[in-house]
Amino acid sequence: MATTRKPASQATSDTAEPKAAKKTTTMKTASTTKATAAASEKKTTPAATAAAAKKTTAASAKSATAKETKTASKATEAASTTATKKAVAPKTGAKTAAKSASTPKATKAAPAPARTAKATKTAAKKPAAKKVSAAAAKKQKEADDKLFAERLARHHDELRWLYMELYDNGDMFAELCDQMKRFFDERSAKLKALDAEREAAGAWYRSSDMLGMQMYIDNFAGTIKGVEENLDYIERCHVNYIHLMPFLDTPSDKSRSDGGYAVKDFRRVNPELGTMEDLAELADKCHDRGISLCMDFVMNHTSEDHEWARRARAGEGEYMSRYFFVKDQGIIDRYTRDVPQVFPATAPGHFTYLPELDQCVMTQFYPYQWDLNYRNPRVFNEMMYNFLFLANQGMDIIRIDAVPYIWKQLGTNCRNLKQVHTIVRMMRMIGEIVCPGIVLLGEVVMAPVEVVPYFGTVEKPECHMLYNVTTMATTWHTVATRDVRLLRQQLDAVYGLPHEYTFLNYLRCHDDIGWGLDYDSLEQWGMYEVPHKKFLNDYFCGLTPGSVSRGELYNADPVTGDARFCATTASMCGIEAAGFEGDEAAMVTAIRKDIMLHAYVFTQSGLPIIYSGDEVGQVNDYTYKDDPEKVEDSRYIHRGKFDWDLTRAIEQPGTVQQRIFDALSELEEIRRTEPVFSADAEVYTKDYSDLSILWIVRRAGGEELHAVFNFSDDAKTIWMPEAGTYTDLVSGAVSDIETVDMPSWSFVWMLKK
Ligand code: GLC
Question: Could you say which of 14, 178, 432, 443 is catalytic?
């Protein structure tokens, strides 16, 4: 039995993969038409590929060997029909009016309310009307086809080059082109209009009027419908970008779902949260309000419950080749030696033994998250179809989760390999061909030198946006040390990058804080990695005398002594401790620190993100300890249920919530309206003689903003660079000043015209 059940076992070992993967996919596509093969033989022109793709549309849709493709096609058809039916011109929330030719004005104007159903029916029967609409539809189709052909032509050569370099498989490339056209055809008119609007506007996500919020659907409002019902609150927070934490189908047992990052089905919403139709409807409602939606695209792995994994576990070679199966302990040992561990304490090791197969499968994250094998072009193609399917539901920003890990190569550390960049570049081009309005947000939690290459180059871009993870960790280091030197250095490095490189700036997200700092620099100042990490963890856990922070360690590694940290912004700023102790003076300082840190985030160019609950100072939630499915994962300390009572407290003057919420609102308003916050402003830090003072200057349109932050427990008097008239953007006061008095943990935004 063992031998017959493991046909692909050799195929999936690291050494034999490429050949086997190719063989498998050739086998899979053997049934696609001759036209596809012809397209791959002609190889050179986009027109040839497009023409072949056109011919093969029907055939390859029929042949669709992968069940996902079939299901997808049905689901997409259904979704796009609904979307088309509802199509209206998008609200011009984002300044530019939707002028796209593809917006079917007639659709919007058609259902005149006074008409009876009968009358409508009769009218529809009129041959003239029918003729006009058929002609209009034909014209629209021609315009759409032309648009697609132009976009494909723009990217074809590079896309084909990269694809062939990685996979050397013309059939699969032709299939990819074919499917891109299919997803383009299925994209609703409304989304196509939004694409056109965004293409015309340029990098729409860089605008300084953007403000994001990251939230768990269940914690915030129970279900997707619940989120829709609470869009007024989101707008009240000035938020026009919502990152909905993973909502695709995942095992209901929370100890096997990694907060939704173990995806069971990329085409189905977790039924506890709603349906794909709810999602598309939410996206539609959001677009009407000028709000965009971000979702996670978990590319690196699937849940062990995903159909591919189930079939692989059952010994189906074709599905086994979509993952990494290894039997040879020597190979496992080499990976263990060369590849750092992601979860050293909660999920040590890189492989999980499957007794059914008497083999191990690669699981770099949790044992129930199986790493996908991107050496297999079937995996790449299918994942791209999933990406396009989700984009067609109205998703605007696709957060590519754990992207540095997606290519594995024995003998390397399996991080940030050049093939990862090839894949991201291809994904960018695929997006620009099918749905150019969408944005790729890379989750690259790596050293700074590894992060920036994910932008690609200005000519050959990869991600549109990246997390500013090092700045985030360095900010908290600065809070603990009251020493801004490293932060200045980090910010200057960011400010020196091309303006096109857009960062997502944040204080807290759903994950732990890993202390990935520049230790070479810190050493010059007497801070060494191991003791410094311990210092930071002790400080934020509230163990250091004088620390007001509260929180917990995450993945403390008993071998290296390394650990990361979890807590909410409010708890790290001292709001939890001050509240618990009923210490109003401490609360005043804690709130000031919280607001100052937000002001500092808003001072940066790029997209600021608020973690849901931070706008009302929500503190740590310790109830996860009572839940056996969550207790092992301390990240749940900052993934508590959103406390709606806190939002009611906003109405009462003097509450913690009112003080934070109103202050943030004011800062958001200033950021949105003052031209000096423009994404194209020149930004730099200023050398100031006090180690606790961070001084950032923004210059745009002849104006100069001096944003000064006091990272210390002491009040400070700062000297302005030149005496003159400054406008305090927060109080509105205009005065001739030479110095400014700053309480501990406070900031000023001084504008000089
Ligand atoms: C990302 C997510 C994290 C998750 C991991 C595995 O890093 O942010 O929450 O555990 O990917 O998917």
Answer: 443
Q: How many alpha carbons lie under 13 Å from residue 412 in its C-beta half-sphere? A: 13
Q: 453: CA distance to ligand 1 center in Å?
A: 20
pLDDT per residue over 513-566, tens digit each? 999 999 999 999 999 999 999 999 999 999 999 899 999 999 998 778 889 999
Q: How far away, in angstroms, is 261 Cα from ligand 1 center?
A: 6
- In angstroms, the CA 261 to CA 266 distance is 11
Question: Which atom of ligand 1 is the closest one to the Cα of 510?
Answer: 9
Helix (H) or strand (E) holding 145: helix 127-167
The residue among 51, 40, 80, 258 whose CA lies nearest residue 168 is: 40
User: What pLDDT does 132 receive?
Assistant: 67
Question: Does the beta carbon of 258 lie inside 6 Å of ligand 1?
Answer: yes
Contact of 65 with 81, CB cutoff 8 Å: no
In angstroms, rounded to a whole number, what is the distance separating the alpha carbons of residues 337 and 324?
17
Atom of ligand 1 nearest to the CA of 635: 9
Give backbone dihedrals phi and psi of 543, rounded to 5 degrees, phi first: -90, -20
CA–CA separation, 565 and 568 (whole Å): 10
User: What does the pLDDT average to over 655-675?
Assistant: 98
Query: Residue 48: is it exposed, middle or buried by C-beta count within 10 angstroms (0-12/13-18/19+)?
Result: middle
Give the pLDDT of residue 124.
Answer: 41
> How much distance in Å is there from the Cα of 99 to the middle of ligand 1?
39
**CA–CA distances in Å: residue 484 to residues 446, 521, 522:** 21, 12, 11
* Full DSSP string of 512-528: PBP----HHHHHHTT--
E strand or H helix at 362: strand 359-362
CA distance 722 to 739: 10
Cβ of 402 below 6 Å from ligand 1: yes
């620099």: which residue's tokens? 521
Q: Residue whose CA is closest, atom 8 of ligand 1?
A: 511
Asked about 382 being catalytic, the answer comes back as: no
Amino acid identity at 362: M
Beta carbon of 511 within 6 Å of any ligand 1 atom: yes
- What are the counts of helices (DSSP H) followed by strands (DSSP E) for the chain? 29, 23
Residue with tokens 């010059």: 524
Does residue 249 have an active-site annotation? no
Is 298 close to ligand 1, i.e. is its CB under 6 Å away?
Answer: yes
Beta carbons of 178 and 384 less than 8 angstroms apart: no
Three-state SS string over 301-341 comes to: EEECCCHHHHHHHCCCHHHHCCECEECCHHHHHHHHHHCCC
Residues 410, 350: Cα–Cα separation, whole Å: 13
**Residue 144 near residue 184 (C-beta atoms within 8 A):** yes
Note the pTM of the prediction, 2 decimals: 0.84
| Closest to 285 (Cα-Cα) out of 86, 94, 104 | 86
**Helices 656-673 + 584-603 axis angle, to 10:** 20
